[in-house]
Amino acid sequence: MTARTVVITGASDGIGAAAARQLAANGHRVVVVGRSEKKTRAVAESIGTEWFRADFTRLDDVRKLALDLNAACARIDVLANNAGGIFGAAKRTGDGFETTFQINHLAPFLLTKLLLDKLIASRATVIQTASVGARLAPRIDLDDLNMERRFESMRAYSASKLENILFTRELHRRYHDRGLNAVAIHPGNVASGFGAGTDNRLVRVIATNRLFRRYVLTTPEKGADQLVWLSEARPGVDWQPGGYYEKRKPARTSAQAADADLARGLWERSDAMAG
Ligand SMILES: NC(=O)c1ccc[n+]([C@@H]2O[C@H](COP(=O)([O-])OP(=O)(O)OC[C@H]3O[C@@H](n4cnc5c(N)ncnc54)[C@H](O)[C@@H]3O)[C@@H](O)[C@H]2O)c1
User: Fold this and answer.
1) Measuring from atom 6 of ligand 1, which residue has the nearest CA?
2) Residue range of the domain that includes 200
């Protein structure tokens, strides 16, 4: 197989780090992106690859990351927008947006847009690590993407993961005929750093309890399976762009995820917000 250039965000930990290790072992050029310089550097050095640091609570970091990636990579065959998580109480970033919304949706939206020319020229695959949790999302209110009316960390998380799927659909609608292959996935329920810092007690207990981690959740390596598979497989042959996958198979999600007007509206609002 030809070696590909694969950029993975959230690759300092968990699923992203496991995918980076596997793809590097398979001979690809992997670019590791993370928030913590120390952890990101450690992962990159352990697999002998490049790394960049960006904190997605700062859109200026995302803009700088896009500039760096555009300069460092002649082509990008795969962009895995994997960074994300469930966080605590309602909080605004310095950019003025609700934190979960910005980290999980707005930052990867902006990064993808700033890399778009290169992604199209490379006929790239763009993967969103979404979640089965998107099924629990409340009705997305385009006039209240910051959830000012009723914030709760699980509501914000599930909405952001639905937004990952809506973004995938709209990316596909706009750019598939120019060669872009967009896909969203649920990675499985994985024992990673996910959920450790949330104020949602149930999620925190499941995510941190030793027995749950050992017997109920799966490993980061298994959670990375679809990122690795989609990075190497042939779009349009091995999998169909535009959709949502679980365990390497197209999967159903909620009716909202298929709402084309909502996907278009979210794109337009995100564009205006990200500037
Ligand atoms: N673990 C699960 O069970 C599970 C289930 C469904 C979906 N997911 C999704 O998988 C993805 C990876 O999560 P994981 O399980 O590996 O968790 P993790 O906590 O181990 O890793 C999360 C990664 O996201 C990065 N990140 C978090 N906040 C960031 C910020 N402000 N700026 C830049 N990067 C930031 C972290 O640095 C880390 O590299 C997430 O998008 C998560 O929503 C996880």
Assistant:
1) 131
2) 5-274
